[in-house]
Amino acid sequence: MITPLPIGDFRFIALDVETACGDSASICQIGLACVRADHSIETWSTLVDPQMPFAPFNIDLHGIGPHTVRHAPNFAGIWPDLLPLLARRPLVQHSRFDEHAINAACRAHGLPRSKLAWNNSVTIARAAWPELRGKGGHGLGNLKTVLNLDFRHHDAEEDARAAAQVVLRAEQHLGASAAEIAPVLAPFQLSLPL
Predict the structure, then answer these.
(1) What's the pTM value of the predicted model, to 2 decimals?
(2) Cα–Cα–Cα angle for 179, 160, 128, rounded to 5 degrees
(3) Domain count, the chain
């Protein structure tokens, strides 16, 4: 059983996953950061039993192992609850890894691939801070330093919140809404006053 999902009207939801091994389908944690019109962020996360072996590298990276997910539901047990929330809002990921992992997990569990509106906070960060190219880049680790973000890297809930903060900071920096910065968000009418 997962903790209750956030409810309300959100502008967008940032999503991040952690995986157990090199297989993209091996999701062991899902984190969300739901952004409201007033720019407040409500976070949520759950552990997931990947039903695959954990690689030592991944355990060292995020600290999640077989003992951590022992009583957690698998992806197929979580996805039907998550999908209605995610399908109604634009999603933000930091890189394309999270979208690939969700699609791989759907395939691995025999679930239909969902049509979700994904955007990439890396793309948004590149539009806002092009000067970072070649100077540490637009990864969350470098943006943490440059934007003075406070989060614990490689925790899905924390990384989702950081991706949401990157979008909000880019909106503020450029004086434009996320929909204007990243056209895939436009169908969701995110052009809100800053």
Answers:
(1) 0.91
(2) 40
(3) 1
